Amino acid sequence: MSFPYPAGIERVLFTEEQIHDRIQEVAAAISEKYRGRDLKLIAVLKGSIFFLTALAREIEIPIQMDFLAISSFSSGANSPGLVRIAKDLDESIEGQDVLLVEDIVDTGFTARYLLQNLAGRGPNSLSICTLLDRTSRRIVQVPVEFRCFEIPDRFVIGFGLDHKQLYRNLPVIAVMKPDAE
Ligand code: PRP
105 alpha carbon to ligand 1 midpoint, in Å? Predict the structure, then answer.
């Protein structure tokens, strides 16, 4: 692979082949569950677009897609995990089967907020599909129906995940050295 690894990388966690193989498996499960239904994938910008396109290519039923962006902020230790929508969906999800596509579920605040928000718009069903799940950092519980990989409590980059907005296009998922985070 010709992509120059950043000096701050400690090790590759998942190779391109491992990512591709696992996405195929998850896409097959999604195709089976939603066959004959009106599926819409909703990607949360920016990190999840790489996963969304890789996943969508492997899903064997017709799908729709839409995008939203969120801002996360904290006003202090007593009120962590405040989330608001910075860019909303373009279209209604009423009556549709919606799959929220994330690159990572971490504390769970973002996913919980989005599930509550989207549930109010009358979808037929609403589930989460995430590339990475870091359950060791969970603060609020959210139902993750489809996950590609559980990961350790380390800072990871690549395949959509950034470090200071860089390295989203790294084709592998890698762990950063603690002193480079
Ligand atoms: C990441 C990810 C989720 C959120 C998960 O987004 O895409 O939206 O963090 O974290 P949580 O479970 O602790 O709420 P990020 O804020 O890094 O934005 P980005 O996708 O633009 O990189």
Answer: 7
